[in-house]
Amino acid sequence: MEETPTGTPVGVDDPYEHAGLCDHLTDDGRCRFALTRAGDDPEFSAARRAADYDCVAAEEDRQFRDCPHYRSTTDGRECVRCGLEAVRIAHDDSRPLLEEHHLSYGGGGDGVGRADPDANGSGGADEPSHEITVALCRWCHAKIHRSFARIDDGVEPDPEAFAAREERRAKEASEFGFSTARERRESDGS
Q: Which of 10, 94, 135, 183 could bridge to 74 as Cys pair (CB 3.0-4.6 Å)?
């Protein structure tokens, strides 16, 4: 199983099995990295410019993992392990129910992968070459890092997670309630 730089498990054997589309991919199939950050990697940007800025994965027999700047980060809407949905309360500083969980880290610590083209973007065993993240609830996140729990385990939300989500939903529903000024004044005893 893959591990973090500190040696804790990440819950998968191959992060690319759980990765999605590249964060740099535009709606029309072009590489946003090459379009907006050409100075960060001039050689890569020049190659993309020569290919009309098409994504590396658009080339024949190529995949996202073949791109040195591939990155797939989560939208954070639900836990990929147990399915717990995110409930955020505006102007509330409480800890989120879902957290970003790294399956793989970008090389060099700058969040930008530096893949070896001969290694098909897999990087070294000690330094994965692409940043790949998924959303996990706090409870699943802890289980993955503290044991051999896996991302693809078919589990139900932890009872504490379910209770925390329902508490937030109740708070959210109470904020949607409408009361007239007269009702508020009467409830205040005025």
A: 135
Report d(CA 72, CA 161) in Å as an integer.
26
Q: For residue 97, give the nearest of 151, 135, 63 by alpha carbon.
A: 135
Range of the domain at 124: 15-22+70-187
Mean pLDDT by 10 residues, the chain (190 residues): 87 92 95 95 96 94 94 93 89 88 71 36 51 95 93 93 92 77 75
3-state secondary structure of 121: coil
**Is residue 153 in a domain?**
yes
CA distance 14 to 156: 23
Q: Residue 55 domain-assigned?
A: no
Nearest to 150 by CA among 6, 12, 4: 12
**How far is it, in rounded angstroms, from Cα 34 to Cα 40?**
9
Task: Indicate whether 10 belongs to any domain.
Answer: no
C-beta atoms surrounding 40 within 10 Å: 13
Tokens for 139, please give them. Answer: 């409870």
- 70-105 in b/e form (b: 16+ CB < 10 A) is bbbbbebebbbbbebebbeeeeeeeebbbbebbbbb
